[in-house]
Amino acid sequence: MAQYREQSNFSTVMAGTKMGNFRSQKKHAIIPIFIPHYGCGYDCVFCNQNKITGVKSIPSYEEVESKIDKWLSTLRPLSEDSFNYAKSDNYAKTVELAFYGGSFTGIPMEVQSSYLDIAKRYKELGRIDKIHLSTRPDYIDENILENLKRHSVDTIELGAQSFDDEVLMASKRGHDSKCTEKSAKLIKDYGFELGLQLMVGLPKDTLKSSVHSAHEVVRLSPSLARIYPTVMLEDTELLNMYRNGEYKPLTRDEAVKRAKAIYLILEKAGITIMRVGLKSGDIIDNSVIDSPAYHPAFRQLVESEIARDRIENLINANRDILSDKSKKSDEPKIKVDICSSPKWFSNMLGNKSENKEYFKNKFSNLDLKYQIDRSIGDGDFKIVIKD
Fold it and tell me: Quick count: other Cβ atoms within 10 Å of Cβ 359?
């Protein structure tokens, strides 16, 4: 709810969902190890792991060690005595080794263990802090989790994608929502940090089913989540479905609307949203085909809409104050500062300054300035009505 507070020479109005003191975040670095499609016996209609990861074969154990060492040489370089870290501008407070791509726990157990032996060794040496992996809901059971626990794994992400069984069937996921629920609960029972991934725009998906999926995620209470728009890649069944008229992709506005609905539900529940959309580096070789939902700054599109809504609500909630000030002032426009945290400043302005243009046209009686206020939490906003 918007709040109004009088000060000595101006009025301050704040809105948002995460009020409180703001501290700079400690640097958290992730070393990604991609193991594409290996271990997965399914071909979901949207999937082409080679195109997403740029990796066409699984890495050897030597390649994994070499990649870790290369990343650590920048993130945590050792000093000359090889026992202490040489502090530098790039020094990472937390380093996480993450196995992405495919379905890690579908790999033969001995291969899983060999990869994890490497990760555990680096963790025991203090070179990395956390071990993270992603997998399918139907590749989780007690034996698998016991092995992951022995290898000091910290975080397990499940590619839930949807909690609507019709959507899962149409996407040829090979599991239902009950499977995801069972696996998520089992992961938490074993003491792992749980992550859940959702996709918007899959076959049969609707705004209603996306919202339902978001509420199901909240019910399972993961520590973190990711939200992806569905994009069409080369050499996928989804692209063939589109060309045959069996699938209609979301427009960008539709994808943003659905992702935004999910985002707000997860944010309200206090779930960390690690990713919204695919970064440009996640898609290679110009592999996105006729996918209007794809945008390299998709997260900004979503968060900019959220920012616009919250700021507009603030202004509208204080129309009486603004109207009264306008009557008493000789100035043609009322001076108002709109403030955000440093991290959300670009979202406040909007992608390509769309929010600035929107507010300029919508509130032509206001002289708006955009400011950073480090006391404001991410996703919160404040308007300062000047005298």
Answer: 22
Q: Where are the beta strands (DSSP E) in 86-186?
A: 94-100, 130-135, 155-161
Q: Which of 260, 264, 377, 362 is nearest to 313 (CA)?
A: 362
DSSP state of 71: H
What is the SS3 assignment for 258?
A: helix
For residue 73, the surrounding DSSP H or E stretch is helix 61-75
d(CA 232, CA 43): 14
Instruction: Record the tokens describing residue 164, joined without a space.
Output: 């609507």
Adjacent-strand bridge partners of 335: 367
321: CB partners within 8 A, 6+ apart: 4, 11, 385
Task: Write out the chain's pLDDT in tens, 387 residues.
Answer: 222 222 223 334 444 444 333 333 348 899 999 887 665 666 788 887 554 444 457 889 999 999 999 999 988 877 655 545 555 556 778 999 999 876 899 989 999 999 999 999 999 999 999 999 999 999 999 999 999 999 999 999 999 999 999 999 999 999 999 999 999 999 999 999 999 999 999 999 999 999 999 999 999 999 999 999 998 888 889 999 999 999 999 999 999 999 999 999 999 999 999 999 986 555 544 566 667 888 889 999 999 999 999 999 999 998 888 887 777 777 788 899 999 999 999 999 999 999 999 999 999 999 999 999 999 999 999 999 887
Could you give the 3-state DSSP secondary structure of residue 56?
coil
Give, as one character, the DSSP assignment of residue 288.
Answer: B
Which H or E run contains 306?
A: helix 298-317
- Residue type, position 13, single letter: V
Give every CB contact of residue 387 below 8 A, 6+ residues apart in sequence.
9, 10
Q: Are 48 and 40 in contact (CB under 8 A)?
A: no
* CA-based nearest residue to 226, from 282, 283, 277: 277
Instruction: Give just the sign of the alpha carbon dihedral 276, 1, 221, 174.
Output: negative
The pTM of the full predicted model, rounded to 2 decimals, is 0.87
